[in-house]
């Protein structure tokens, strides 16, 4: 069974027949967390770094932001029995959406990565693995049965 996570959304599961997948991780981040001791995992697709940019929107759609989205992902994983000490965190995305040689003024991808790293460090998490940065779109999938993660890359348009 495949479950697709859209932009500003997430999914947690203990169904070992499920694969959770998200597409089009450009400047967005895909954040997967998995507890191998009980086969519980989740995948989050965030767009923006900090919820303080729009607290009203963050209250309605917490998975849109790195800070509120990651907190929500953890809360739901813990509700399924996951333990913090067992969680393996994998990250993908955070690309520049500009072709090589073009200026990326807003640096959303880079800011997303920076905020996530600070948040993880502050909460004593380590990134187990990941593929971030550059100017490549990614697809990320988490197989709940064993925590196996795939990250596929696709160029972001022509390089003129």
TrEMBL record:
HAMAP family assigned to the protein according to its UniProt record, in alphabetical order: CheD (MF_01440)
Family matches, as InterPro entries: CheD-like_sf, Chemorcpt_Glu_NH3ase_CheD, Cytotoxic_necrot_fac-like_cat
Record organism: Fodinibius salsisoli
Keyword Hydrolase on entry: yes
Job description of the protein: Probably deamidates glutamine residues to glutamate on methyl-accepting chemotaxis receptors (MCPs), playing an important role in chemotaxis.
Family of this protein: Belongs to the CheD family.
Transmembrane segments: none
Pfam family, one: CheD
Protein name as catalogued: Probable chemoreceptor glutamine deamidase CheD
Catalytic activity: L-glutaminyl-[protein] + H2O = L-glutamyl-[protein] + NH4(+)
E.C. numbers: 3.5.1.44
Keywords in alphabetical order: Chemotaxis, Hydrolase
């Amino acid at each position: 069974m495949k479950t697709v996570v859209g932009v500003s959304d997430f999914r947690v599961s203990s169904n070992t027949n499920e694969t959770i997948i998200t597409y089009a991780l450009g400047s967005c981040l895909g954040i997967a967390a998995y507890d191998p001791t009980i086969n519980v995992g989740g995948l989050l697709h965030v767009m923006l770094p900090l919820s303080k940019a729009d607290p009203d929107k963050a209250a309605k759609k917490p998975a849109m932001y790195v800070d509120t989205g990651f907190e929500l992902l953890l809360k739901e994983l813990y509700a399924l029995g996951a333990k913090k000490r067992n969680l393996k965190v994998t990250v993908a995305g955070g690309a520049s959406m500009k072709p090589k040689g073009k200026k990326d003024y807003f640096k959303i991808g880079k800011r997303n990565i920076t905020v996530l790293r600070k948040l993880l460090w502050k909460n004593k998490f380590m990134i187990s693995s990941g593929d971030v940065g550059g100017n490549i779109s990614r697809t990320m999938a988490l197989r709940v049965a064993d925590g196996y993660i795939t990250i596929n890359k696709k160029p972001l348009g022509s390089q003129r």
